[in-house]
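Ticket #496: bound-state structure for nicotinamide-adenine-dinucleotide.
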Amino acid sequence: MPELPAILPQRHFIDGAFRDGVSGETFETLNPTTNAPIAEVSAGTAADVDAAVTAARRAFDEGPWPRMTAKERAKALRGIAGLIRERAQEFIALECLDIGMPIAQMKGLAARAAENFDYFANVVEELHGRAWQTGGFLNYSVHKPVGVAGLIMPWNAPLMLSTWRIAPCLAAGNTIVLKPAEWSPLTATALARLLADAGLPEGVFNVVHGFGETAGAPLSAHPGVDLICFTGEGRTGEIIMAAGAPTLKRCSFELGGKSPVVVFDDAGADFERLVDAVVFQIFSMNGQRCTAGSRLLAQQGIYDRLVEAVAERAKRIRVGDPFDATTELGPLIRPEHHERVLGYVREAADGGARLLAGGDRPAGLPEGNYLQATVLADVEPSMRAFREEIFGPVLVATPFADEEEAVRLANDTEYGLAAYVWTNDLTRAHRVAQAIDTGLCWVNSQNVRDLRTPFGGVKRSGIGREGGDYSFEFYCEQETIHVALGEHRIPRLGVG
Ligand code: NAD
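RESOLUTION: The complex was predicted; output attached.
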């Protein structure tokens, strides 16, 4: 493990300063490799949320940030990207410690956090309205920031996921109150310090730590908040949307998934590449990944060979300390999550699924929340392991006979975030990709993001799209201005 800076108590960041919570209550964030406490964290309440929203409101209504030109804000964002790169080692270490992400994978996520700021700096500089000339009028639209955004974030990749929202939100000229997940507060505090060092005006970026029910709930209901960006579970999204309804908050929701990897018999030409993708898409990021390819649907002709090969690879995945550069799978976030994930495995195995790999704590790792990479074959569509998001390193595999059955199984879920289709038949690839109810589909590939493309889910996987210009449809208002050129006839009333 690298030398870490002393980890101070994690305090709220409000109006440009770190503060204890009004209640003085704290909780502990735990190291998932031992479940020993890492740091005390302020447990935010409605009073802290109110102070943060008041600061963000003032920064929006009176401060310079929304009034700066897009070019000026873009420059600030590029400065933030540069600082993230400078402090990458600190961010990587904090997040590996807090959530157990393998360090080799965390390096890519930290690089992506910096890229989020650089990328949206470029997009906002190019953002432009439209103009419509009609008889006697010039009509045009302009982008304006919306106001104060409440960002409520999950624990699975907090730095990458929060910067994916923070960067376009700030680029558009909004101000922010971030509520990180209670299980992963460390990089949010470090980010608050970094944004202050980058020279963001006071109140533009605020952090309130704490639990969903006591800090997230007052944020999602606060009348001073205009936008809610939420990444997390659908059930939480329902509560947040209801809380925001009386003040008609605009919502962008990135929710759960149970994404299918649909493999046709003819996909075996480059079998090793296929196995690489199936294994990577479920076991990277400790399996705690919203776009995980968690359901392997394979045609009968390739099914046995593929599940055997994937299981053999799963058995060889290196599970261990997130700070070991060779680790491929770290611990799950919490003991209760570990227990929950194992519960799905046991239930499926008891129900007749074949446990081909994993299913238990790895030998030699008696403490912490470690779980072997797990593969379950012959999982029935009626089983909970097929239907529900497990959010851990567990792949369920189910065979299909033909294209019609493949599409039916792929769509037999309440989720629709990502899908992965593998075939060498060109027309089938396009046909099946379009037939699956999903926000994102990759053909003959793992998840490779292009930040210009719309990202988001259908069904219970989300509401809205972000990425490229799409982000600014959410983070901006568009005002239409109709300018009379003085030529059109105005109907005359009251002239007799
Ligand atoms: P979660 O819904 O339990 O918690 C997310 C956040 O909501 C946390 O900050 C939590 O404190 C807060 N929260 C909880 N109850 C609240 C309430 N009543 N009011 C306001 N806020 C509340 O989700 P999680 O377990 O942290 O994250 C895992 C989930 O996130 C998975 O379902 C995963 O698929 C999803 N996810 C989706 C994406 C995506 O891009 N679609 C990305 C990452 C994670």
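RESOLUTION NOTES: The longest helix spans residues 103-126.
TICKET STATUS: resolved
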